[in-house]
Amino acid sequence: MDDPLYREEILDHYYSSPYRGRLERADHACDLDNPFCGDQIHVELAVDGDRIKDVRFDGKGCVISQAATSLLAERLEGATVEEALGLGPADVVKLLGMPLTPTRMKCGLLGWKAIRQALTPKDVTA
Amino acid sequence: MDDPLYREEILDHYYSSPYRGRLERADHACDLDNPFCGDQIHVELAVDGDRIKDVRFDGKGCVISQAATSLLAERLEGATVEEALGLGPADVVKLLGMPLTPTRMKCGLLGWKAIRQALTPKDVTA
Amino acid sequence: MADVAAVRGTGLDVSRVRADFPPLAEEVRPGVPLRYFDSAATALKPAPVVEAVREFLADYPANVHRGLHVLSERATEAFEGARLKVAAHLGVDDPAQVIFTRGTTEAINLVARSWGRMALKPGDAIVLSELEHHANIVPWQMIAAETGAVLRYVDLTDDLEYDLDSFDRLFDDGRVRMVATTGMSNVTGVRPPVEEIARRARGRGARVLIDAAQSLAHEGLDVVELGIDFAAFSGHKVFGPTGVGVLYGKRELLEAMEPVLGGGNMVLRVERDRAVWNELPDKFEAGTPPIAEVIGLGAAIDYIESLDAEAVARHERGLIEHAHATLGAVEGFRLLGPSDTAGKGPIVGFTLDGTHPHDLSHLLDRHGIAIRAGHHCAMPLHTRLGIPASARASFALYNTKDEIDRLAEALGSIKTMLRRR
Amino acid sequence: MADVAAVRGTGLDVSRVRADFPPLAEEVRPGVPLRYFDSAATALKPAPVVEAVREFLADYPANVHRGLHVLSERATEAFEGARLKVAAHLGVDDPAQVIFTRGTTEAINLVARSWGRMALKPGDAIVLSELEHHANIVPWQMIAAETGAVLRYVDLTDDLEYDLDSFDRLFDDGRVRMVATTGMSNVTGVRPPVEEIARRARGRGARVLIDAAQSLAHEGLDVVELGIDFAAFSGHKVFGPTGVGVLYGKRELLEAMEPVLGGGNMVLRVERDRAVWNELPDKFEAGTPPIAEVIGLGAAIDYIESLDAEAVARHERGLIEHAHATLGAVEGFRLLGPSDTAGKGPIVGFTLDGTHPHDLSHLLDRHGIAIRAGHHCAMPLHTRLGIPASARASFALYNTKDEIDRLAEALGSIKTMLRRR
Ligand SMILES: Cc1ncc(COP(=O)(O)O)c(C=O)c1O
Ligand SMILES: Cc1ncc(COP(=O)(O)O)c(C=O)c1O
Predict the structure, then answer these.
(1) CATH, residue D367
(2) Which ligand sits closest to the CA of C261?
């Protein structure tokens, strides 16, 4: 009955992500929550020029929402802002290594949305 | 494809009822209509003591509503008011000689309702 | 059936279509096959629609939205998949503009109440016509009474067609905020010129709602191309199940509008004394939606789209022309509305001299022929016609000219039978 | 199934009942049978309900009311027959007091809006509790905002039970006009003392509405004996189809209330600028009703009444007691609400330490086990509990103790699997 979505690697990202925590100085940050399951995510990014130097997150929620955020943080450290904004839901699924059902997608994309929102120039934010 | 409901006798009551018309002096009268099909009925009764002497009706509508009223008029001439008020939907069906579907029942009972209403003491009418 | 072969040539295999609708193969009484001319009241349901509903109820009857088990995921996928189908059918990219309701009636009420409360001020005018079904009259009367707005009716021509000159005059004082019109009269089949109506109304700053309850069973509706603000239709009249309908609305309007029903799913957050509304379309879909019904509607849209629309239109045009010719030849037959078939759909409203529509419908049933009799929820039209009731034979893609011939014959024989002796 | 034989002795043949619900014989994945513990979201549908819906759609899919052909007469008879069945089930003589809606949500909205507009003045109070589903909160918030009425919440005891002392205190100023309460919490299964609530509310001149959405799947509701003013429930939670629900109302109230939706059937007469309402129940049933769905609901009522109600209650009591004992033994399992099963229905709201309800539900699905996770449309209750979400296993007459054992095992293995390494 094991679910490959909940494999060792994902649980590691959930329980002991190296990206969990706060930055000394963040250039961008965003708080998001999903009222339907109570998941909360806080992300912070430090940017140097157009390059993402550091990502940290904090939050409470299900394995999927927290691990996906950690995987994204890992993926984005060292990437450009443009690259980060170019990532889509499919990339998050790829990082998780497993397809998500539509309902679970909402969990999986919470961190992605928060990062996107943090990096989006404020006057463009809807 | 003939329908026994629309037999000769019923059509006679529809086209040339001896009860169609007005009374010189009516003791009770009532106008009713069924907005759904536009059927209209006007009934008049002359009463002597507790006995119904004369019944007349007038109206426009389908064969069933008009013929049923005529049949009722025939049945009630000479009857007591009590007897008239004792008649129920089943008696109307018996007069028509054929069961009616629920929808047609509304046509069949228009005259019956009008007569009932005409004979019901006004302070009791709902 | 004489005309099946002929029609086949046009791209619609009517005998195959008929096989999809079980009642058409039935006898209503021994030896009396069904002739169904009551599709304007509700259309028959093709087998795939029945099966889609059955399958949901029997195999995966789970609630939608946020269920994490297999049954619920399957139900959610089928449910939201149907929304995509409806959106595509209406030419809409954004499925959040498709709101599921119980039917046309609820959809129009939603607009009248929610948009009306937001937009209408005393003296503002709502333009209707006497062609409208009560569903497109009474909700406007109710909101008019509440807001102080007034109703204005477009005149009809002598042929009972929408009079665009009269329409124009209603705008003289600049108070018209809404034009709500049927896409097809359910009594006469008359099709108001919705493109032109929409164009002129928009040009004068009025919103446009199309009641597509009748028209969508016969022709497509591209709400974006028409540039209309709202459209409403019912599942059961487009070969889908009962219990479901659709409201299309422009996003900017739907977003500005307040919800009408409160409850689960339409909220993001509920505190003791306040709630925060959810996004579209959920904001307008309080409570458990009609899940089986929405899925069935999706199957109905699939069914319609599986057919050659042009061929269906040609077939239906053939039916209405044949009906006008054949029924018109029956002694005492009086057609309601235009005799020219160009501006109308496959609906024949009529009276038969000396015969009450109720008797007619009752006696036609003895011939296995199903029509409607009454005011068809269009009393203002009947008031104008000066008759309390009429008879209506309405056709759909599964009817044949042969069946119409049977109707003409039956009318003749009933007329004889009811002749005053 | 170990307990089937035992239960048989009580008058409910559970294995026979199970055979009526097709999904219970299915595997959700090869080798993984379905264990359905999500009946509080929507109940599975027994074969006769599925068949009643299918039969209408396939064989006699006609519109009801005033159709004069065979199909329509048959549809009308089945439709109105279902109304009689519902009325009888609620202990009501007069079927006109049974209004068909889309569901509980629409039914409560109808009362809140129509009765509320008529009866509520600024400062009047509506009494709710934190046990309520959003369907019995948000409509009252909306009408309170419109009328200036206020909401008051009954306190819950530490066990999350309805506190009658707190209830009494809410009446001190004599401003309470309505008490709306659930018959059974959809999160914890807690059953407020509706008889006592109704008695006390009535004695103080307040109206009473019972949200029977959950309770009616488990126990009867005699609205006349209770003397309540309104009751609401949904077809889909009592083994019926989606798309249909019921509002019961006292005749004198329903007659005084204004309709909420305008359209066909709810009017006797429509003129250009005004309409005359129809009688009950039609006044509140605008448009084509959910015909297939009402007929299916009738079949569901027949199904419930075909079973021995006492035996069903005993079986369900056995289930909830077993669930409390078995699940309670799982490490980290925390029950929400009272541990005493006497005052509750067969619903287990819970959390599992260190496990998010969403992960739990997701992983239980791998075991074929269907539960719900989330706030269950009861945010105020979750706010009080200080948790954003919970897990819920809900049982119905077709569940077995054996299935509950599988749930307990699965919870244990998930706890192990998710253990921090
Ligand atoms: C207690 C309670 N009330 C109301 C509702 C709403 O019912 P529906 O969604 O069928 O309108 C539900 C179920 O969701 C419920 O559990
Ligand atoms: C033109 C028109 N509008 C609205 C309606 C109402 O549709 P429904 O009864 O499905 O809500 C109908 C059908 O009855 C109709 O023909």
Answers:
(1) 3.90.1150.10
(2) 1
Q: Is residue D221 part of a domain?
A: yes
Instruction: Mutation target for A interface from D32, D359, D361: give the one with most A CBs within 10 A.
Output: D359
Q: Would residue D382 count as lying in a domain?
A: yes
Q: What DSSP string runs through C401-414?
A: HHHHHHHHHHHHHH
Q: What percent of chain D has pLDDT over 90?
A: 96
pLDDT digits 0-9 by tens, D335-352: 999 999 999 999 999 999
Rounded Cα distance between D207 and D357, Å, is 38
Whether residue C334 is contained in a domain is answered as yes
Query: In degrees rounded to 5, what are phi and psi of residue C246?
Result: -135, 140
CATH fold of A4-118, please? Sufe protein. Chain: A (3.90.1010)
Residue C35: how many CB atoms within 10 A of its CB?
A: 25
Same domain, C240 and C312: no
Residues 6+ apart with CB under 8 A from B116: B84, B85
Q: Yes or no: say if D395 and D319 are a contact pair by the CB < 8 Å rule.
A: yes
Same domain, C141 and C276: yes
Beta bridge partners of C352: C333, C355
pLDDT in tens, C352-393: 999 999 999 999 999 999 999 999 999 999 999 999 999 999
The interface residues of chain B toward chain C in range 47-106, judged by CB-CB distance below 8 A, are: 61-64, 104
Residue D161 near residue D338, CB atoms below 8 Å: yes
Domain-wise residue ranges, chain B: 4-118
CATH number reported for the structural domain that contains residue D183 in this entry: 3.40.640.10
- Which residue range forms the structural domain that includes residue D104? 51-305
Angle between helical axes of A8-15 and A63-76 (0-180°, round to 10): 90
SS3 C52: helix
SS3 of A28, please? Answer: strand
Residue listed under structure tokens 């609305």? C249
In a domain, C269, yes or no: yes
What global pTM score does this model have? 0.96
For ligand 1, whether the C-beta of C287 sits within 6 Å is yes
Regarding whether D287 and D387 lie in a shared domain, the answer is no
Helix ranges restricted to H, D192-290: 194-203, 223-226, 251-256
CA distance, residue B39 to nearest chain D CA (Å):
13
Active site residues of D: 377
Which residue do the tokens 């899940």 mark? C291
| D252 and D326 inside one domain | no
